[in-house]
Write a structure and sequence with these properties.
The chain is α+β, with helices and mostly antiparallel strands. The protein contains 1 helix and 8 strands. β4 and β5 form a beta hairpin.
């Protein structure tokens, strides 16, 4: 119950911040860090499309709640797997330098049998 309340508070704070934010007209500068807190259901995958700048190191991190194994996958716009973190923890980190600017697909896969509240960080 405590885990669910903590995750719900994090989600409410994130939603409140997003509601007060200015509408985005362009992707964020490469040096900024974005965070997003969410819950991935047991045996499910969450997917995000995030813009990264070509020639600039891209970094993605996932910090889970410790309850299950999370795997992280990054795909380019053509569906090619670029990089992944598939160890047996729910803390994931990958970095790469995109060859072009564009949207990349981030997949967070929960291998466990319970939900996992995680924070996604991107630059």
């Amino acid at each position: 119950m405590k885990k669910m309340i903590t995750c719900m508070i994090a989600l409410i704070v994130a939603m409140a911040i997003n509601m007060n934010a200015e509408p985005a007209v362009a992707p964020a500068p490469a040096s900024s860090v974005s965070t997003h807190t969410d819950i991935v259901k047991a045996r499910h995958t969450d997917t995000y499309n995030v813009y990264f700048v070509g020639g600039v190191e891209a970094e993605v991190a996932v910090i889970g709640d410790g309850d299950t194994d999370l795997d992280l996958y990054i795909y380019d716009e053509n569906g090619n797997l670029i990089v992944s973190d598939t160890d047996s923890t729910d803390d994931c980190y990958v970095s790469w330098t995109p060859k072009w600017s564009g949207y990349f697909k981030i997949k967070i896969k929960n291998l466990g049998y319970v939900s996992n509240c995680y924070t996604l960080l991107t630059n």
